[in-house]
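User: What would this chain look like folded?
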Amino acid sequence: MSERKKVGFFERFSNAATKFTGSSPAFIIAVTIVLIWAVTGPLFNYSETWQLVINTGTTIITFLMVFLIQKSQNKDSKAIQLKLNELIASHDKASNRMVDIEDLTEEELDQFHKFYALLAKMADEETDIHCSHSIDVAKENHQRKLKGVYRLMKDAEKED
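Assistant: Here's the prediction, encoded as structure tokens.
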């Protein structure tokens, strides 16, 4: 069995905090804190300091959670991308052009989106639900069509 690299303190803390903050006990604690704050309002005559306590506390927690959530999202996104890349790379009929597609420009992604929207339309028009369209098949079909068009153009020129 392969050894895994030792996980650092921040990584362990981040993972634990992310798991905890997304749990029911964390939500219950947050609601309890807000209720305690609300109930103590009359004791402090709803003073500015009383309001400042909840405002400052929630602002600090929100600020820190943004970074924690972003770190978790980045890690999850990277893991999903790697899993998808592995599936693409392992399938002999899948287009390897899709590996690391997340590094393309917005314009390049828009081109792929248009292409897949067209494939989706073609798939909707298919009567056989098992029919598959891939980039490579579409490219081959396109090349075949172009050859047919060129042949028709040459035939038309010969007739003139």
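The helical segments are 9-21, 24-39, 48-90, 106-125, 135-159. If you want, I can go into more detail on any region.
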